Amino acid sequence: MSREHREDISVKTAVITVSTTRTEKTDLSGKIIQESFEKTGIPVLWIKIVKDDISEIRSAVMEALDSANCIVVNGGTGLTHDDCTIEAVSPLFIKTMDGFGELFRQKSYAQVGNSVILSRAAAGINKGRAIFCIPGSPKAVKLAAEEIIVPEIIHILTHANQ
User: Fold this and answer.
1) Cα 116–chain centre separation
2) Which of 16, 20, 79, 86 is most buried, taking the most CB atoms under 10 A from its CB?
3) What is the pTM of this model?
4) d(C-alpha 131, C-alpha 11), whole Å
5) Using an 8 Å Cβ cutoff, are 122 and 90 in contact?
6) pLDDT, tens only, 25-76
7) What tens digit of pLDDT does each residue of 62-77 get?
8) Strand 95-96's sheet: what is its strand order?
9) Distance between CA atoms of 99 and 3, rounded to whole angstroms?
10) What is the distance between the alpha carbons of residues 50 and 68, in angstroms, rounded to a whole number?
11) For the CA atoms of the chain, what is the radius of gyration?
């Protein structure tokens, strides 16, 4: 691909797990995301677990924006009364990447069928940094990280920083 589409960008990742029940030991989804990035040579600077709380989620994303240019938030993207990741993070998007959610749902259909309509996966850009909000199930994070985010992150950051 031509240079204007993929610059030599150093990707630095932060992973935020949104859950009221997961701990560092039981956060399988956070570990899957970390491994997906690190096996391609992309460092994960830190992993944080926060409760399903708008202010805690937003605060963690703001903290991540200080050091990372790729933030992956997993969990809290569904329709239950306590799912609030999208409400916490979407106001931080300067530009949205609508295609991310569309592609994630298209690829997820093979795994979950029509239940894919319950997913509110979303992504956006804030000051040249990419933020992804994905469901917290291990299958969902593996799909999102390995099939979409990791393969496209340099392309995304190149455009976000032009």
Assistant:
1) 17
2) 16
3) 0.95
4) 13
5) yes
6) 999 999 999 999 999 999 999 999 999 999 999 999 999 999 999 999 999 9
7) 999 999 999 999 999 9
8) 44-50, 13-18, 70-74, 129-134, 122-126, 95-96
9) 22
10) 17
11) 14
Own/partner contacts of 49-53, CB < 8 Å, gap of 24 or more, are: 49/16, 49/17, 49/18, 49/19, 49/22, 49/23, 49/24, 50/16, 50/17, 50/18, 51/18, 51/19, 51/20, 52/18, 52/19, 52/20, 52/76, 52/82, 52/83, 52/84, 52/85, 53/84
User: How many angstroms separate the Cα of 108 from the Cα of each of 33, 103, 144?
Assistant: 16, 8, 9
Contact 100, 153 (CB under 8 A): no
Alpha helices in the chain (DSSP H): 28-38, 54-65, 85-89, 98-112, 138-143, 150-160
Task: Return the amino acid letter for 108.
Answer: S
CA 129, CA 151: separation in Å to the nearest integer?
16
Which residues does residue 130 pair with via DSSP β-bridges, in sequence order?
A: 70, 125
- Mean confidence (pLDDT) of the chain: 95
Residues 12, 38: contact at Cβ < 8 Å?
A: no
Strands 129-134 and 95-96, by their bridges, are unpaired
